[in-house]
Design goal:
The chain has one helix at 2-102; strands at residues 121-125, 128-131, 138-141, 144-148, 155-157, 162-169, 175-180, 185-192, 194-195, 202-203, 208-211, 223-229. With 253 residues, it is α+β, with helices and mostly antiparallel strands. The chain binds zinc ion (ZN).
């Protein structure tokens, strides 16, 4: 009995051992699955990181392209600004020479300037910074563009009495007239189709001096109108606090 009992105990122990081993194996199996799972996750993450890195590299390249493009645009704008400044300087010196040469008998503008083009008209571009219609770059606009309705060749009129100091082709201004009103004030009219007055002529306020056109640096029939002031201090009473707008023709109407 004792021996049998012993055997039975041994068998029972074996069974327990087998069960334990089975459990251990299951645990190992589960752990293995877990590790494999982790490995797959890690690989997945590694792929994602690699994909992100590739995306970022691509983004960096795109940003670099964009930056180069913007730099190019900035350079173009700076060049346009310098060109305009040069052009403005050139014109300033030319006008001062012409004023000196003209020996005008006028001593400045009394009252307000006339609207320089016969109606109906509308302002197609104001004075100041604007997007250049040709290059798309920011550019300074030193005058006011006034377009006749339906692109008609409306008459351009002298904004005040004065002496014509320029009448002819003037680069980007196309057919151009400048009138010296004395006191260092000059009005400039650009892009006209035909000119009705000549250099040296004296014109009265409101006199027809040209027909509207689209000559020179122009995309459609309009008058480019500028007022230039050379005398300091200013010859007239400007509206208070608008020193920065000394050349803005809009302040004269
Ligand atoms: Zn203009």
């Amino acid at each position: 009995m004792t021996r049998l009992h012993s055997l039975s105990i041994i068998a029972s122990n074996d069974l327990t051992l087998i069960e334990e081993i089975q459990e251990e194996r299951d645990l190992i199996e589960a752990r293995k699955d877990e590790l494999e799972n982790n490995k797959a996750n890690l690989e997945n993450m590694r792929d994602q990181v690699a994909a992100n890195e590739a995306r970022m590299d691509q983004a960096v390249l795109e940003r670099k392209d964009l930056l180069a493009e913007l730099q190019g645009e900035i350079d173009l704008n700076l060049k346009a600004i310098r060109d305009l400044e040069d052009e403005s300087q050139r014109l300033d010196s030319l006008i001062q020479e012409l004023i000196a040469e003209a020996q005008s008998q006028f001593s400045g503008i009394e009252g307000e300037l006339l609207w320089p083009i016969e109606p109906p008209t509308w302002i197609s571009s104001g004075y100041g910074w604007r997007r250049d219609p040709f290059s798309g770059a920011q550019a300074w606009h030193g005058g006011v563009d006034i377009a006749p309705h339906h692109g008609a060749a409306n008459y351009i009129i002298a904004a005040a009495e004065g002496k014509v100091i320029y009448s002819g082709w003037n680069g980007g201004y196309g057919n151009c007239i400048m009138i010296d009103h004395g006191g260092g004030t000059v009005t400039l009219y650009g892009h006209m189709s035909s000119l009705l007055v000549q250099k040296g002529e004296v014109v009265s306020r409101g006199q027809r001096i040209a027909r509207a056109g689209t000559t020179g640096y122009s995309t459609g029939v309009h008058l480019h109108f500028e007022v230039r002031e050379f005398s300091k201090p200013a010859v007239r009473n400007y509206p208070s606090g608008n020193k920065d707008y000394r050349h803005n023709p809009m302040y004269y109407f």
